[in-house]
Amino acid sequence: MLIETWNNILKMSKSGKGFLGSQKVFLSAIDTIIRKPDLVTKNAPHIREVTDLKRIMILVVLALIPCTLFGIWNVGRNSYASIGIYDASFYASFSEGFLHVFPLIIISYIAGGICEGAFAHSRGHEIAEGFLVTGLLYPLVCPPTIPWWMFILGIMFGVVVGKELFGGTGMNIVNPALLSRAFLFFAYPAAISGDEVWVKRPFYENSDGELCASSWTTIDVLKINHFIKSPHNDVVSGQTPLALATDLANSGNVLNVNEGINTTYNTVDMFLGRIPGSIGETSVLMCLLGASILIATRIGSWRTMLGVLIGAFTITTMFMLMNHSNRSSLLSVSLQNHLLMGGFMFGTVFMATDPVSGPLHRKSQFIYGLGIGSLCILIRAINPAFPEGMMLSILFMNIFSPLIDHYITIFEINNRRSKRVQ
Amino acid sequence: MNIIKFSGGHDFSMKNGPNNLVSYLGSPDLIGLVPPRTIKVKAKVLIKVGETVKLGQILFYDKKNVHIKFTSPTFGTITNILYGNRRVLKAVEIKKQILEDSSFIQFDKKNIDKISSSQIVSNLINSGIWSKFRIFPGFEFLSDQADFLERKSILFISLFSTEPHVADIQLLLNKKTYMKLFLYGLKTCSKIFKKIYIFNNKNTFPEKISEFSKNLNNIFLYNIEDKYPSDNPGLQCYFTNSLGLDSLNVHGLAFNIIEIGHLFIKGQMMNERFISISGNGIKECRNVIVNSGVSIKHLLQNLVTENSNDYRILSGGILTGKKIFVEDYLADEDISLQVLLEDRKRTLFSFFRLGLNDFTLLKTWVSGFFPKNDYNISTSNNGEERACIQCGYCFEICPVKLMPSLLMKSAVTNDIEKMEYLNISDCIECELCTFICPSKIEIGQHIKYGKEFIKKKDNIYVN
After folding, report:
1. What pLDDT is stored for residue A422 in this prediction?
2. A363 in reach of chain B (CB within 8 A)
3. Do the Cβ atoms of B319 and A36 come within 8 Å?
4. Where do the domains of chain B lie?
């Protein structure tokens, strides 16, 4: 009965008349999510692979879920830590984080989905599944304190300028999620860089300079007020390890920058992700979990990931050798710390392996990875303005990937031709 | 002997295949001759309705290439000549009469050593066997006769088939009479072709063939890896380095060689075909020997359903086959008939499943990690068409190392230079790229369109 009604609605929408006809794109998108389309093959081959784009995108989302869940917990944990409570229960931390992160994910899907749907509607083609991934990647690379209006502006810019203007899914030159972040980074630098934005504190400073407990929180108001009013409330710094490293190197107070980093954030914490940072990027462990899913299902390119690691290793070693006497500068940050800090792992696993903005050939994927890894370390170590280099290096290499592909195509064709002529 | 190995391709194994028995199937009274399904023929019909034709008599030929002739598969009276749109010849229907001695067109039956090679070629042309050979690149008819004997021609023959459910010719060669015809045909071919490459997938060759090839110095035996599409002549050309500009790569079915043997031993055309009938839409899958030109309806007597919307009939394998209809007749290139049930099932949340029993070449489902031998055939498209996301799966699976997605893009934009730069003519039309594409793009169709576009432009330039 229900199915029949639904089928009738679809039939009416396909005729293209009236209100239902105008909503054709959305109705058929809902229909194909719920049920497999009833299409059969037209020409040879008469059998087809079971995997479609929906399956691939859903697997990437699956690979992102460990990072998302950990990110939610970590945001809550950081909130509690900022009022001096370090032993908050898992449930309390998770629910606090959920309150802050879940709205962002929903907003990202709705705002971006509207843009995507509007373009699909005006072009008259189906809504592509690629947005499932972009909509989840974007909140994970933003700080938890980002204002919602800014967040919406970012995702709309990413989807419209990064993707739809180039022709939609499959045509974009750069990764839309990263472009959204880059937009925020350059348009509203105060909201996405510095030391204050990485921890969602349950209190804020009002216009008189007094600290007040915020209402959008699950933390007990008494606990917050107790913290605010206590005389020894040294507000815990929300500095990310990267910013810390930059500070240490610029101040020149420490002899060894690696030791300086690791006295504040020990290696285990950085590996597990119990540090301030963007929502989903802090945990290296969860990124590795996601990477294992992507590599096992052959969706993410292991060549790109390996390339990034090798590139990073080469440049770090080179800097170490160049600068072996002075251990206090950024050039001598060890590879281990580079891998654990900031969004290096998250970018390697989820951003660099995006097939659309990345290169096509297996060989060029490796070169592309090398480029990302080495550029990232270069930006981190040499450029004083940007502590984080992953976003910029990936965007930069996105633009170069067609060029790499072009030369690899020539190389492969020449190989083939030499065989052909004998 | 070395085995030719290649990356890409896949070893398909599917359920509902034919059993190994070869049985004879009787033939109905009405026989039909149809032009080839894969190449368009501009037919010049030489007979009229009511005329009596002999077995082996020329019924029509191709106006574009007069050496391509099509001969009657039986002795009888013409009852009907069917035309399609724009007077394209669809079929010539013949009412069969009882065969007598005088009902054959008689060809030379002398010892093969005494016949000149040009005489052999003209016999092949007049008997219509010439029209059964294809050249690569292009999968076209053989060029004209005068040119042929001077060129460096190579004949490619496969003694196996890797596409699922296609009849295995070695079942036929196990029978003594057919093996004798095959060897004689091979001897005939060795006189007109400069080289003959014979391929097998089983590491060894049938003893008689390997013994026979020792006597003739232009027959070469190759072992090739047993996975689809190693029986494709294009792939064999590529891996034997014979894609040079001067050589003429000719592909013949092993059955055509048997026909040639029959023609030169008995002096008459053979009127038998060896095909397999299989698929999930048919109750009993089998390999059969039938009279050439029988109707498809006669062959598919035990269909599972009657409703013609619920099944499709294919000539050829499930990867490269062509759709045909019940009203059709058996064509010369039909080596297998498959009846597949259309799969329009609408599974709920199909992309959320674990996929324990799905046929996949990727690792995105559980069954991708634990591949089984038998899979059910499904004609479902498994999704809607989307834009290319540059996943590169088609690069990995292409057995001749082409770049299918780049070719597809240049074909869509009609960029001839780019297409030729990417060696579009080397595409062997195995359709693996279309099969694996997760965006469900018809890459193979786009590439075929590109080839035709180039051909059209070339013709304009030449004329």
Report:
1. 45
2. no
3. no
4. 3-266, 381-462
